[in-house]
Amino acid sequence: MSEQHELAELDATEQAALVARGELSARELVEAAIRRIERHDGELGAVPVRIFEDALVRAEALRAGAPYAGVPFLMKDVGARQEGQPYYAGNQALSDADHRAEADTPLGARFREVGLVTLGNSSAPEFGLQSNTWPLVYGPTRNPWQPDRAAGGSSGGACAAVAAGLVPVAHASDGAGSIRIPASWCGLIGLKPTRDLVIWRHAGSERPDVEFVVARSLRDIAALLDFLRPAAARGLSASRFRESIARAPGRTRIGFTHRAPGGSAVDPSCVAAVERVAAALADRGHDVSEDAPAALDQYWDRALHGAVIGPLGYRECLEDLEERLGRPVDARDVEPFLWELAAGPDGAPESATAEEIERAALWTGNWERELVGWFDAHEVLVTPTVPEPAPPLDSLDPAKLAPLALLERMVPHMAFTEPWNATGQPAISLPLGWTPSGLPVGVQLVGRFGADDDLFALAAQLLETLGEPSRRPRIHA
Q: 307 and 169 share a domain?
């Protein structure tokens, strides 16, 4: 089991089993992944930051018995960090300074503890702020299915690398769809767990952004959710999510829609994928109806209210950059997209008043309660993950599009995903559809808050019914 193409087909669970059985060493797994990256990433642009020598040293020093000992892994260039390793956040100034993480974040430490070996950083848009991965410091990440198409974002580098077989699993994060959007466009399984189920940051909770991983197999996703959540969150069963994919779901009340929030157009392939899934669920005995929260129709109102407090988040990125560089920053230190949305085109911050922020927060709270209230009568909502399959890469070129034009192009991508960051509910994208030209299409399942295990059971049943994807992308190791 040392052939490159054979290892590239194996998920993280099976690669770990090879080491546990003594068929391969952790170093051999890591060396094989390094060769795959060197051979194929030139076409993808998924792994711009590489720490191969460090990875080989760590592979030799792994503790015995770690569940994923030696499994090759990538950290996303935004979010959780590991001590001493590069952390550039897709930013030119941090890259020029060769900025290094001063300490592990909780999730970065947990990745080490379970035996995952970091080979480098996957590409991400600057500070993770775009629905596609094209940081100006690195250039675009290409979709392995069709290289002239977008891979998605902000976890596009992670998804492209896993879909192409460079590594079996990679760190990812999701603040408005940043796991699920690229998972849909790259043909992967992408889970946004219930908020705070995985503790990933050194401070703060109840935030819309979560961090986890992307993978090709549902068993990897379930097992890693078991292993990565803190011991205090594991309850009575340390294998709760692994057990859930082995059990049949009970009769479930399911609503579905393929009408985009805000009335944006939905590609026929995305519509067909949702209808196929709804029919399969009905055939398995579930209570399925075409129904969705009415509050989703207020998506553009949601976007307008979000714009009131959105600049505060952009300015946090500038403050974070200043702290890391140890100096004030200006427009030369960041991409035009971040600078304009944070400070305005003239460089002068335009702050919302306290009253405007309070009104926006009140409206948002009512909107979230309406969304959650729909789940009193339903257990799962089925939607497209994104209203369109992977678009042409050049349609999201950050060097050609003005910042506001780029933002306008991206907002519809998040229409089906961002609401569940706001409510904190679990949502998973499954690769269950295809375009006529062979691009993957994701279907999203949204569950009740904390019911990740029920979502796993239903996802496993769907994959059994419709078949797990067996196609291989054009670029594959």
A: no
